[in-house]
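hey so i finally got around to running the thing on that chain from the lab meeting. sorry it took forever, my laptop kept dying and i had to restart like 3 times. anyway pasting the input first so we r on the same page abt which one it is
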Amino acid sequence: MYVDNKIRIGMKEDGENVYINPSMCCRHGLIAGATGSGKTITLKVLAESFSDMGVPVFLADVKGDLAGMCMPGEDTEDMKRRIEKFSLSDAGFDYHGYPTVFWDIYGKKGIPLRTTITEMGPDLMATVLGLNDLQTALMSIIYKIADDHGLLLIDTKDLKAILNYVSDNHKVFEEEYGKIAPVSIAAIVREVVALEMKGAEQFFGEPAINIRDFFSTGPEGRGVINILDSSSLINDPTLYSMFMLYLLSELFETLPEVGDQAKPKLAFFFDEAHLLFNGASKELLTKIEQVVKLIRSKGVGVYFATQNPSDIPDGVMNQLGNKIEHALHAYTPAEQKKVKAAAEGLRENPSFNTYETLMALGTGESVVSFLGEDGVPGLAEKVSILPPQSQMGEISDSVRESEIRSSMLYTKYAESYDPDSAYEFLKRKGVEDEEARAAAEKAMQDEKEALKAQQAAEREEQRAKEKAEREEQRAKEKAEREAIKAKEKEEREAAREKEKEGRAVKNAAKSVGSSVAGTVGREVGKSVGSSFGKFGKTLGGNVGASIGRGIIGTLFRSR
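ok and heres what got predicted. didnt touch it at all, straight out
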């Protein structure tokens, strides 16, 4: 409850009111306590006080019981007793609802809340994906390539598209951006796919949230309470922590440095904060600690609500100056050790035992320690927390729907759209490259076909030339053979003529010789025959002629 320019949080047993100094609210805070101890009511009272102070609020509603802040509280008997106990009527306490905007990553119980891969940034994206140092450096290169080439990274399909494109063309990019290992890129793609399976596709898209839309006030000057429905989101701690850390990082990067302020510019509540830290990597814890440490200079107060202070890492706990701790149950030595550590984290008050008090607190009671104006933690005090002025518990679906649609931000963020970004550009480029490759392949094929045709023509020409040469050679050889044959024929004919002439000569000679020989023979026969009488005459003429021819023939043959 905001009174006298201070946040009245509760009352001590002696009736003294306990306040939080608004100028110390940027030093962050803790709300802890076991289930049913009253920490949700405390969170509501703080959020209402900030709103009454004109400070916008952002908080995660894990169980749905913070949604009632949009409705005025009910005047029940229990509330009447509380109002009387704390003398709230004199302080101006009244029931009223608060200006509220409901958000939901999945768009079911609130206005869709989205961001883009580009706005997430390489460092935070690498942290969320759990990348190692080499992969983190590679993620920064991917973002640089996208920026240099004017590629918008809106959603996960854009991120996968550019990762795969760089992997396929890593040799081209290595000339300018250094060594790029496709194996490392493949590992990043697998992590992106795993994140998609957790529902991250719903978170990345357009229109992306403008963080300044959280900084608004209602008609009566009250700060708007932005409630993120986390009933589904909380089922995946990785996605929950990614989103909440993104918002803190975006606030830090967007808001100007303001130093110490009379009151915060925004109060940010992490409900079920243990889910943010359980299983978180060392890099993620370092990032959270860094953001929490530095964001107070931007005028943002961060408040973690969890079951046990030990859920908060020491590095973060050291940044939380305002502490409200409800009953902490401890039934085992290990649990008792945690409660003792929580008691030791508060400035000791000599008037009571902090450990025993924490163990014995009832519902709505707490041990608190707030920073003084000098920034020094105050003594631990046992107080009873004031009741909220808005409705406690959930609201009906019809009321929620009415609140959602009545917000001016509904028309701005309700409908998503998929702009022309890296995925679409690289897909077109892939088609163009494919067409270019097809055209190049066709040109190359045509060139091959032309070359084959040219080679075939050259071979045909060569074959024709060789055929002509062969035919010419055959003609030449034929001519030579014909010439030889003609010459041989001529020589044979000459020989035959010569032989004929020889035979003619021989025949002539033979005829002459035969005639002469016959005559001679007959004459000889006659001479001989005359010697032997008539018989000898006849014998001598025929035989003599025969003998004469034989002698002449022998003579000619011998020639």
